[in-house]
Amino acid sequence: MPRRRKPRVLVLARAQVRETRHAVIGPAEPITNETSVVRQAATGAAFMAVAQSAALTAETASAYLRNITMLSQATIAVAMANMLKYPPVSVKQYQPVVEEVAKVLSSAVTSYTEISTAAAKVVREFPSS
Hints:
By secondary structure, the chain is mostly helical. It has 3 helices and no strands.
């Protein structure tokens, strides 16, 4: 009985799954049956969903940091303008504002770092099977 050739689409899908799995998890065991193909495809799809969620999380954190930075810069600019316009009384009045804005900005940077690190850790530690 002549050997049937596998459809080209299936061969390409297997190669893509193997390539994705290798890039994400490491070298895969050889594909021996349809069950392992399905399992690898599911693992690849699950990883892609996790990676997309992590990327969206990092993007949201980045937008938050950008917005906090813009607000902080505007607040400091107004405070500095008033400090220069009405010294020395205004310096005492606006100095705490500048210091507090600097703390908020520092806190936003720390939050961004923690969120981005956590998102990367989730992707890195995603189960391989």
